[in-house]
Amino acid sequence: MSAARASLIDTEVAVRSFQVCNLPQPNSNSNSASALGFKHTDMSNNQGPSQLPAGKTKAKKRYLKRKKEKRKFRSKVAHAGISSVYIPEEDVQEEIGTPEATASEINENAAILDPPETSKRSKKRPRLVQDEDVNMNEPPVEDKRRTATPELIGVLPSFPLPALPNAPSKNQLSLQGVDKALIDAELVSPSTILPVLLGKDDGGTRLSERMRKRLRDIGVIELFAVQTTLLPFLLPPQESSRELYLPFGPPRDVCVSAPTGSGKTLAYVLPILEILARRVVTRLRALIVLPTRDLVAQVRETIEVLSKGTNLKIGTATGQHSFAHEQSQLVQDQTSPLQGGSSKVDILIATPGRLIDHIVGTPGFSLQHLRFLVIDEADRLLAQSFQDWLAQVLAATRVPANGAFPFVGLSRSRDAGAAIHKPASFDDIVPDGLSPTFLQGFHSAVSSFFLERKTPSCQKLLFSATLTRDPAKIASLELRNPKYIVVQGRGKDSEEGGILDVVTERFSMPATLSEHMVIMEPNLKPLVFFHLVHTRGITSALVFTKSAESTTRLVRLFEFFETVRCENLSVTPFAMRAYSSDLPANERKMILEQFKSQRIQILVCSDLISRGLDISHVSHVVSYDVPVDMRKYVHRVGRTARAGRTGDAWTLVEEQEARYFKQMLKEADHLDQVKRLRISEKDLAPLTGHYEVALNKLKQVYTRQA
Ligand SMILES: Nc1ncnc2c1ncn2[C@@H]1O[C@H](COP(=O)(O)OP(=O)(O)OP(=O)(O)O)[C@@H](O)[C@H]1O
């Protein structure tokens, strides 16, 4: 069969299918057939019998006769007013040449299939789109560029014009890539407090009767928001169900962001003491890491006060004493190869440097039994990478992946890995504890139901007023299903705002803090400071400078000034002292004691003590030199207005620094909170004479030194 013939057959098939559907025939068929050179009888014209070939067959005659009868019948029907019978001419014509099909059969089929309206419509052009194709839910969008006929506009579907998607909001963008746990943080209002009740009823605090009594004894009558949130999370409801270790349901780690002075220390100290109070044997079960010796001493004091009557032993490792002395204070037995170490303390408070020294170099010092690992001032400690302290501490709390016994203490090597993971023979092992980490070490050697692999129960608790959201730093902590708790400060009511504030590192401030800035010429800065000291009712102030040199100069100038001012007056000069890391430890301790007992009214220091230091009576904080970043600002001003007390913070800003400082506050969404204090020359006039004398005296001192 040639391709041309195949094409013709296809054409005929198409024509038939059109007939069945009663659609008009495409005219092109006959044209295409003739164009291909085939002799083709054009059946589309309504030709009469005269055009038939001369020799008629019987069938054709019969057909013509019937056709004639049909015409007669049609004209009769028309006369009778019956117009609903449809007899398509085309169908009749098509049947010519197919003698089997009679005109009456065709006529019958046509009458059944097609109502008269259809016959009219079939003559029209087929509609491109049916009405029901158009989505009625969407209003048609008029495309003015199209020049369609009104008929087409009515029937064509309308598609929305392309448009740019809505840009994500700034808030949405801020949350992108942020740890899901942080987005799901629990937001806590500072007003969430609980009373500390005496007697059987714990008032929802989950604290034991003994602990509540102890708190009342030291004047704590209610728990602050961060404490009321964390205690129920860390303490099971029943005292009797407080297991030391949870090998089959390891606890979740916790990250807490709460303003300065909001009571974060008690929030971790109380649950640690409550859980460890059940221990029988002394092991190192809680490790608290802090960035400075001063903070270690402060937290130790708090724990000692609250742990009275529990028999828990507390130790510190800060490097303040000799290494050998610390070793003897921390480890019972430095000679026996005890699997879990042999600790003299239940709770160790340490700075990271000295802690690593003990992990690496103290025989019998082990973190295998650790139940709590607290990292206070977490953002600052995570920023410290010396000796890779965090990785070493985490490694010391778990068993190595190869399943070797975690054997500690016999190596004095400086290589921590060697000390912690040194494999030992089974004979060397002297089991002395049942912490999950300890038991994990046995798994590879002894297969037993009782020694089936347990999950370490070491729970990490992170705290800061300026918690980092840096995913890399958080990842380095290897947190287990962490829960974030965010205590909102002043003016942070909305849920979205609370999380966004943490995510965008806009830190909360205590609600009781008032903040001011004074912008002045640089040469007037000391005089402005002296003016504030004498006119703003200072009783106890912390003053922050940018360097030890700046501290020394300010203290000397102030001493000269006070001497001159008080010469002719019967008043006691203000006592101001410098507090810096250059001073020997015991002198620093003494100065701090004098400040705490208010024998010194003004302490001038660097950012060394801007974090964590808790001195309740500090009425004012002065940033004599502007802080370099918002974190430092938050911690400096946070030395006042603690635990619900009021406090004032002033920042002295030299004219050329004003733009930078304001921008820093603006970026932290905090500019509105810091009011500008204007001090005129008239205000300063009463002090100018004394100031000039003091300045000259200082110049003489420096000239002599040079
Ligand atoms: N429930 C309480 N009732 C009364 N005083 C409390 C309570 N909880 C804590 N305090 C006191 O509030 C002060 C601030 O507490 P803490 O030092 O723990 O604050 P912080 O949140 O750690 O502050 P920072 O971030 O500056 O270190 C301390 O003097 C503490 O004794």
From TrEMBL:
SUPFAM superfamilies: P-loop containing nucleoside triphosphate hydrolases (SSF52540). Residues 57-75 have a biased composition (Basic residues). It catalyses: ATP + H2O = ADP + phosphate + H(+). Residues 26-75, 100-142 are annotated as: Disordered. Keywords: ATP-binding, Helicase, Hydrolase, Nucleotide-binding, RNA-binding. Gene3D superfamilies: P-loop containing nucleotide triphosphate hydrolases. GO terms for molecular function: ATP binding; hydrolase activity; RNA binding; RNA helicase activity. RNA helicase. Belongs to the DEAD box helicase family. This is ATP-dependent RNA helicase.
